[in-house]
């Protein structure tokens, strides 16, 4: 009987995938329901256990409707955040007065393909747009498999040319053990540059270029171990080896580029990261909390003999929540401290991966910083599923688009006594206000167009290709 019901269920699901939503299922919502089975449909490549690991509902659970519905919503979010599927639907099908079956229906992405590389080797798109110089472009190709062996393993081989020459490989195994709590990360790479940054002046980077010899070469090897304590909490431990050499002219221009006035430095780095992630959609969250911390020690006294010992701690908190229908509020707090004075090669503050909006064209370096960002968003167009014509596979033809208008306010501060001279934004509070439009579509793509006015009174429009925070 159970086999017959299962077969019937899959037939029904194949006709209803694109129409049925959780909210449209009419069920007897009185009393507890026992989950007699969990069935997955659409996973031609992905192993079922990879999807089941994300479910907050288990076979045998006896739940009231409110808890059951909350569990299905959270399961849908968890499976979607694997970044393996374009669409995920979770729905209950009642088979008796007291029993239900949970159906998880997925549409898989295309997992293996060569990815052409054409990217900007600048802190962001807007910095490059000022000059539009070809020499700031990287080009090449990366062969990637985002779901190797159907186990959410990731394999990448990269050949990059242009501003940065890179040859590297990386392999991620997220599920080493049966409980799927341990993961492994391995990578190795060689990098070289004709031009590098050797100082920060006028709130901008200062460059050294050598057309006859490389300005910098370095090798990097990493081994990481991930422990996923539960669905929302994970720990990551990593040991990496870096061997960096620069042209001797760099050391002459910047004696503090490395710890000593030599043109080479090699050292071990130990990193610990903790993440507590309750966001609904990691690539563009509207609800949920993300708490993270990082501890990093550069120089373990094993391979380096130059006295390098830089300890860095970083803490961040993001909160996204819904105010009312279509209206959302979010804020982000982030702070980082170098507890010992780092060489210039290891100095990073605001203007790189993290910045105050309105200061995209600036770099503010120092030993520590704080950053506060806020957003209020209005959903102009809720995620709308669309079919693209003339595309033969639904892995690309079925997609979605969503539009959000937003207002924002950011404030930041960088402490850096050694950078104060010649950099007016160091040891000063900087802030900005602005408005923008966010475009979100499939394969986790985000585009932001933002207009802002900063504390110096400069007004500008900037473009970004990832979420604000």
Oligomer: single chain
Spatial strand order of the main sheet: 5-6-7-8-9-12-13-14-15-16-17-18-19-20-21-22
Which outline best applies? globular
Number of alpha- plus pi-helical segments = 6
| H and E string | HEHEHEEEHEEEEEEEEHEEEEEHEEEE
End-to-end gap:
50 Å
Strand-residue fraction? over 45%
Overview in brief:
This protein is mainly β and 469 residues long. Helices cover 11% and strands 52% of the residues.
General description of the model:
The protein is mostly beta strands. The chain has helices spanning 2-16, 48-52, 65-80, 125-129, 248-253, 394-397, and strands at residues 33-41, 62-63, 85-94, 99-108, 112-120, 137-148, 153-162, 164-173, 182-193, 195-201, 204-209, 216-228, 233-246, 264-277, 288-298, 310-324, 327-338, 368-387, 398-415, 430-441, 445-454, 459-464. The strands form three sheets. Strands 5-6-7-8-9-12-13-14-15-16-17-18-19-20-21-22 form a 16-stranded antiparallel sheet. Strands 2-1-4-3 form a four-stranded mixed sheet. 25% of the residues are buried. Residues 1-25 have low confidence and may be disordered.
